[in-house]
């Protein structure tokens, strides 16, 4: 997906928001019809029937007729494809689209090819019912047959062309690297490199704290609350942009430098779930402490370091060269002698093997164990004993 920043005029922004509203309305209406299916009521309307109903609705309602039929029909096609993907088991169940959160629509076909390059820095796209909208040329325009116009929470507009870039070729040097993901160090490599994902500056973080306190004092529905929420969204968007840029640069570098990249097989979505409440059976209706506050801090640290996006982009840029390793005891296993014991990990950053005396940064040692495939399973083994004949265990090979 090749994305560019759009700069519509105020009048074009209002028109784009109307198109987003129409696409969201059509999607949610199709989802409502699909969700009403019951065994006793018979089948719900399919794509062809919904397209016919949309034509009737456009003739009956002027506000819907004022929008682009191309955008509305494409929303129905996108929903039909989402249902097919859900039934095929490749994607999740289609969900509702909400105002302010899902602002966007897609253009497919000949109308998506109406792109004009104005000069070396600017180009324009002819959006139906909106006109020519300028966007910044940060790279060459790909030859795509569709594009999506979106608006994020910070109020920025983007145009994204549906182009899947090719994989990065392997260097063919036989190099293998292990990547250990953490919170203090975002990614530690077996080569000794410590990579840290950039976060907000101290000044921006202080402003974020100040804005969050102002938001807590604002009255719901007020203009002040709306302005404060917009300012907070811009800071979060800035942090997300920096994190995404870091992930893209790191994954491209790893794919170009190494033939095999080994990472821990971690379930990030499962690890960042909220802890379940603990009912207090001695006092009905009450609950015991479940460590929610501490878990929330850990979850924010995991998400802020881009654990999931790092591995996902590696698998997309280096298909077939990313191997997931069983993460059990990688932080306690010596990368030199293979000795495993909790005492090896002196602190968060220091690793000193009690058997051979090997000392290194704890995350680098774990990355070296991952690169060598020295991840032991959680079977019944005595602490500190690892069979020297153990073969590397790969969880899955992607």
Please sum up the structure shown.
With about 400 residues, this protein is of the alpha+beta class. It contains ten helices and 17 strands. Keywords: DNA recombination, DNA-binding, Metal-binding, Transposition, Zinc.
Structural description of this entry:
The strands form five sheets. The chain has a six-stranded mixed β-sheet. α1 (10-35) crosses α4 (69-88), α2 (47-60) packs antiparallel against α4 (69-88) and α5 packs antiparallel against α6. β8 and β9 form a beta hairpin. It folds into two domains: 2-161, no CATH class; 171-200 and 227-398, no CATH class. The protein contains ten helices and 17 strands. The chain is an alpha+beta fold. The protein is globular and about 80 Å long. The chain has helices at residues 10-35, 47-60, 62-65, 69-88, 202-217, 223-257, 268-271, 292-304, 307-317, 362-372; strands at residues 2-6, 103-108, 115-117, 122-127, 131-136, 146-151, 157-161, 176-181, 187-189, 194-195, 260-264, 278-280, 286-288, 322-325, 350-352, 359-361, 394-397. The model is unreliable at 375-398 (pLDDT under 50). The protein starts with a strand and ends with a strand. 39% of the residues lie in helices and 18% in strands. The longest helix is centred in the middle third of the chain and has 35 residues, at 223-257.
